[in-house]
Amino acid sequence: MSENLTCELTENLIEFCENRGSVYALLSRCYEKELDAAFASDFAAAPALLSDDKALAEGFALLQSDLSNCGEDDLERFAVSFNRVFFGMGPRTAQKAFPYESVYTSSSGLMMQDAYAQVRTLYHAMRFAKNPDFPEPEDHLAVELAFMARLCDVAVEALRADDAAAVEAALSAQLSFLRDHLLNWIDRFAVDAKKADGGGFYGDLAAFTQAYLEGDVDAVAEVVE
Questions:
Q1: Which stretches are transmembrane (predicted)?
Q2: Which segments of the chain have a pLDDT < 70?
């Protein structure tokens, strides 16, 4: 990326990062806790996903359709699915998709392993802290997605300050985190979530998350490299 940011490039990058940050924030909230009526309504009414990838845009629209006109019965059904798929609250033999990087990247398949320590170090370096009311560890998918949203905000702040070096650092941090953390387990997680939820919302959500991350790493790489 050139150190000289023109006005047009700056505005384009601000839009790029703001749009991506909004998607990451939405996805993070979906994995953080059960859906409530207000969030379901906000997600359903969010602007269409801006993407040259038709399948990706359609995947986002499908999620919005799933959440459109949610009633109490729908929200209860989603809550049951959330707890069954991500926390194993159901039959012992049921398929599960535990949303922790360590589970998918450690040889023992346990929580709070090397990935947990690594992301904590990264968060500290970027002055990021997870929501103190969220009880799950730092390598939970919701937290990793929230970190990406924060890195997008950092890039926007640097762009508005006309600090090219800080912009490049923020975008490079996004690229590294995608490659080193999110993309080294999201494919296996998505397969498990799809099996656990069948054709339900959370199976669709995991499939979209994987597709979005795979597309986003290419988009960021085009800017940085």
A1: none
A2: 1-4, 89-94
